[in-house]
Amino acid sequence: MKYCSTCGASMPDEDIVCTNCGAAVNQVAVQKEPARKVVGVWGYIWRNLIMYIPVVGQILYLVFLFIAAFGSKDKEESFRNWAKSQLLVMAIILGIAVLVGLIMLVFFILGGVSAREALSYTTNDAVAGGIVY
Length: 133
Fold this sequence. Notes:
Distance between the termini: 82 Å
Structural class: mainly alpha
Order of helices and strands: EEHHHHH
Strand content: under 5%
Number of strands: 2
Shape: elongated
Strand order of the largest sheet: 1-2
Low-confidence stretches: none
Radius of gyration: 33 Å
Number of helices: 5
Number of domains: 2
Mean pLDDT: 76
Largest sheet: 2 strands, antiparallel
């Protein structure tokens, strides 16, 4: 049971005009979700295959991710979020690699071990020195 917003009279739910005062009852418009564009399996496969081409593939993949994440707004929001997450993961991995490289650089500079000595140190030297791996 609903009530008329003009005169307050009760009326059945299916009525669109008040039988007491004749005022039109406000109809709530039902909003439909926009149709989602579905990306097929092959659409994702070619994007992933690009990444496996050495050097050029990684550059193309980064360009693709930047365009997908920040380029056109007509792409589906979940697809843009996926591209942003890929960029974030790549940035984290790059940061970790740079940090490990800096730690190794500091270790070799301050530790007194040259890169040549570190690379020439073999397991035979370790066994001869009493260290067993």
